[in-house]
Structure formats: structure tokens, C-alpha cells
Specification:
Strand content: over 45%
Helix content: 10-25%
Structural class: mainly beta
Number of domains: 1
CATH architecture: 3 Solenoid
Bound molecules: 2-acetamido-2-deoxy-beta-D-glucopyranose
CATH topology: Pectate Lyase C-like
Number of strands: 29
Number of helices: 3
Length: 431
């Protein structure tokens, strides 16, 4: 009995000390969050971030996000300028948030760990993920750096001896509504730079997305299962698609985008493994492509069902593009050849209008459609595509394509549904 009391007497000051230091810590935390709550700005530096590029600041970002997301007033999570914040794990920033709007302002740099072992096999597909946030803005003029070199070196596309494994998308948005992504540099992603999935009412503007032309699978912007999306004023130079438009995309408007190097603007691949695909209401306007493998492309696998329709590519300039205009309904990227099948994703009401520039292969216009589901309602209007350097004849080829011509179309389009037409290249015009 006595000894217990004695112990208590001895322990009491220690307990008091522990309690008070905890209280102090909490008070300090409460102080910073009180200041944040008043100003509405939740700086990573107030949540213990070092910003030295070596210590992991992922927890600081998560904590600042949680506080901002719980704020009753519009809140800003600030990544201060002039510093590099290392995020060496997957960071999930989830809603719903309490206030009607939350902003992540990146003035400095968020940089990913170069160490692939920092990703567990449980989730190798993501780095920074926003989920289920309404009224989210990401802006600030800063940099999101995927630090992807080690991932590229270990890609099976670069080193054929290695197994094919997934790599992270730098910036993902899942189930976000009223989303704005503006004024950011996204560089050297491990794989896709930015992915918009299951989102509605999205505005993307003023992005600069850059990775080497040789980096594997580094799509610029990937869009799927999303409605009412606008992408404008972006510069995208990567090793894969500039913008890839996948299944479930409806009402997408892309304008004033410059692409290249990379694989161009692609709708698809759709219908893989006999799946259903639905894509409609796509406009690609005032886009320039330089040195890309494709310009305006729609690609579907054999088999599959559904549709890709009401699509317009217009006011485009192509410089040294391999396949400026291409619909390919027998796309295959498998080791084994894909066999011909009875069904296909139906491609219809597609307009290619006011498209000029140069091609580096003779395939300027290629409408290669499925025998069982011919493309229909294809319009070619005011097109002028020539071999780069006046180097021979550009061609147009058509298989199973029901199309019409308006205005001048060079190379002269095929007259039947199944034909190849050559046109002797005239002198190249400056772009
Ligand atoms: C594509 O979207 C449609 C309609 O939303 C859906 O039924 C289909 O399963 C999706 N296909 C794939 C491959 O996810
Ligand atoms: C087009 O050519 C393919 C073979 O390349 C042939 O099977 C098909 O019947 C032709 N279609 C028409 C309309 O001539």
C-alpha cells in the first residue's frame, strides 16, 4: 500500500510534466491551426514540413490537407515557393470537404522519391491522388516533379528483359466535381502525368507538361469516365500520348494545346478484350502538333461494342507528324496478332476540318475501318497535308469508310470506300 503511494508521489511530477508538455504541443498546434483557420491558409511549413528535398514531407501535406478540408471556410493548402518538398510515398487527399472550395496552391516543388522501393506492391499506380473533392482548385505556378528516370530505366518497354509492371501516375483526380487545375508545371512523371477519372465539370488550363520523348508510357493528360471537361492553353511534350481520351468521356473540349514530342491526341484504345466503349461529344480545336507519331487519332481494337461519335478535330497544324489523320479499327498492341472479329466499336460522325501541315510518312490520311462495322458520317474538309521537305507523294487510304469531302482535300481522298489515293507533293508551304 505504502509503496504504491510512494510511487505515485514520485510519478506525479513526471505525469504532470508529460501532460503539460503534451498540452503545450497541442496548444502550439492549435495556435498554428487557429492562425490557419483565421487566414484560411494552411501552409505545409506550419505542419512540420522541412522543404529540403531530403526529408519526407508527405505527412505534413496530409495533415495540412485534413485541416483545410475540415475548415468551414474556403481554405488554401500552401506549398511555399523556393523549396522542394519530398513526398516519398503515395499521398491520398480525400474529400468530401466541409467548405464549398479547397485550393492546393503549389508555389514551390513537390518532388517524388526516386526510389521505387518506396512504393509497395499494393499501390504502384499512384503518387498524388485527390478523391471525391467538390470545388477543388490546384494552382500556383509551381512544379510537380515525378522524378521518373529510375522508373523509365526499369520499364519493360526500355529493357525488354524486365517484367512489365505498373508505374505511378503523378497527379490523379478521382470522383472530383467542379475541378480546376491551372498554372502548373508537371515534369518527368513515372508514367502518366495527370489522370482525370470519374470527374464532372473540369477545367484544365495553363499546364506545362514535360518529359523526354524517349520516356515510356508518359501520357500527358489522360481522361476517362468523365463529363464536361475543358483543356486549354497547355504545352505537352512527353514520350506517349499528348492527351488520351478513353472510355466514358463525354463533352470534352480541347483547345489551344501544343503537343510534341509524343504520340499526339488519341481517342482510345477502345474495345479491348471485347469490352463496351462509349465516347461522344469530343472537340479538339486549335491544336498544333510537332514531331508526333500521330496527329488526330481514333483507335479501337477488333471486337468490342459501343460507340465513338460526334467528334470534331479542327484548326490543327501538324509539323512532321507520322500519321496526321488516322482512324484505326484494328489496333493491336499485343504480342500475338489480334484476330479479326465480327463486332467493333462503331465510329461515326467524325469531322476533320481545317487541318494543314506536313507528314514524315506517306500516310497523311488513313481511314482504316472495320469490315463488319464500317465507319460512317466521316467528313474531310479543307485539308492540306504534304510530305515534309516535298519528299514524294502523300497518300490517303480508305477501308470500309463512308465519308464525304468538303472544300479542298489534299492528298486527294479516295473515291471508293476501299482505296489508296496518292497525290504528287506540291512544294511545301511554310506553317
Ligand atoms: C466503358 O464504359 C461503359 C459505359 O459506361 C461500360 O459499360 C464499360 O464496362 C466500360 N468499359 C470498360 C473496358 O471499362
Ligand atoms: C474492302 O477491302 C477488303 C479487303 O481489304 C474487303 O474484304 C472488303 O470487302 C472491301 N470492301 C468493299 C466495300 O469493297
Amino acid at each position: 500500500m505504502a509503496s504504491t503511494r510512494l510511487q505515485l508521489v514520485f510519478l506525479a511530477p513526471i505525469i504532470a510534466l508529460l501532460v503539460s508538455s503534451r498540452a503545450l504541443g497541442a496548444a502550439a498546434m492549435a495556435g498554428s491551426s487557429l492562425a490557419a483557420a483565421q487566414s484560411g491558409v494552411f501552409s505545409l511549413d506550419s505542419y512540420g514540413a522541412r522543404g529540403d528535398g531530403t526529408h519526407d514531407d508527405a505527412q505534413a501535406l496530409s495533415n495540412a490537407w485534413k485541416a483545410a478540408c475540415a475548415s468551414p471556410r474556403p481554405a488554401v493548402v500552401l506549398v511555399p515557393g523556393g523549396k522542394r518538398y519530398l513526398l516519398s510515398e503515395v499521398v491520398k487527399l480525400s474529400g468530401p470537404c466541409r467548405s464549398a472550395s479547397v485550393t492546393l496552391t503549389v508555389q514551390g516543388t513537390l518532388v517524388a522519391s526516386p526510389n521505387r522501393a518506396d512504393w509497395s506492391d499494393r499501390d504502384r499506380r499512384h503518387w498524388i491522388v485527390f478523391r471525391a473533392v467538390d470545388g477543388l482548385t490546384v494552382n500556383g505556378g509551381g512544379v510537380i516533379d515525378g522524378n521518373g528516370e529510375t522508373w523509365w530505366k526499369n520499364s519493360c518497354k526500355i529493357n525488354k528483359a524486365l517484367p512489365c509492371k505498373e508505374a505511378p501516375t503523378a497527379l490523379s483526380f478521382h470522383y472530383c466535381t467542379s475541378l480546376r487545375v491551372q498554372d502548373l508545371k508537371i515534369v518527368n512523371s513515372q508514367q502518366i502525368h495527370m489522370s482525370i477519372e470519374d470527374c464532372t465539370n473540369v477545367q484544365v488550363a495553363g499546364l506545362s507538361i514535360t518529359a523526354p520523348g524517349t520516356s515510356p508510357n508518359t501520357d500527358g493528360i489522360h481522361i476517362t469516365r468523365s463529363n464536361a471537361v475543358q483543356v486549354t492553353n497547355c504545352k505537352i511534350k512527353t514520350g506517349d500520348d499528348c492527351i488520351s481520351i478513353e472510355n466514358g468521356t463525354h463533352n470534352l473540349h480541347v483547345s489551344h494545346v501544343v503537343c510534341g514530342p509524343g504520340h499526339g491526341i488519341s481517342i482510345g484504345s477502345l474495345g479491348d478484350d471485347d469490352s463496351r466503349a462509349e465516347v461522344s461529344g469530343i472537340t479538339v480545336d486549335s491544336v498544333r502538333l510537332y514531331g508526333t507519331t500521330n496527329g488526330a487519332r481514333i483507335k479501337t481494337y477488333q471486337g468490342g461494342s459501343g460507340y465513338a461519335r460526334d467528334i470534331t478535330f479542327q484548326n490543327m497544324v501538324m509539323g512532321g507528324v507520322k500519321n496526321p489523320i488516322i482512324i484505326d479499327q484494328s489496333y493491336c498492341d499485343r504480342a500475338k496478332p489480334c484476330r479479326e472479329q465480327g463486332s467493333a466499336v462503331e465510329v461515326s460522325n467524325v469531322v476533320f476540318r481545317n487541318i494543314r501541315g506536313t507528314t514524315v510518312t506517306k500516310d497523311a490520311i488513313k481511314l482504316s475501318c472495320s469490315r463488319n462495322a464500317p465507319c460512317h458520317g466521316i467528313t474531310l474538309q479543307n485539308i492540306d497535308l504534304r510530305m515534309e521537305g516535298g519528299n514524294g507523294a502523300a497518300e490517303s487510304t480508305c477501308q470500309n469508310a463512308k465519308w464525304r469531302k468538303a472544300g479542298t482535300v489534299l492528298p486527294q481522298p479516295c473515291t471508293s470506300q476501299n482505296e489508296t489515293r496518292r497525290q504528287v507533293a506540291a512544294t511545301e508551304q511554310p506553317l
